[in-house]
Design a protein that fits this description.
The protein is of the alpha+beta class. 27% of the residues lie in helices and 44% in strands. Strands 1, 2, 3 and 4 form a 4-stranded antiparallel beta sheet that branches. A hairpin with a 7-residue loop joins strand 3 and strand 4.
Length: 52
């Protein structure tokens, strides 16, 4: 599954922490600047369910 995180750097970092607690993160893109909001970024993350 591919997820797009949007927000400032602190929000994206917090989102990544929560994703890594629940899922296996298989790839992370670089942070792209958001055109509409100059202080925000977009980050694309590919995750898979964790094996239990």
């Amino acid at each position: 599954m591919r997820i797009r995180l949007e927000g400032n750097r602190a929000e994206i970092a917090l989102g990544m922490i929560h994703l890594r607690e629940t899922f296996t993160v298989t790839s992370v893109s670089r942070a792209y600047p958001d055109r509409a909001r100059p202080r925000n970024y977009r980050l694309y993350v590919t995750i898979t369910p964790r094996r239990r």
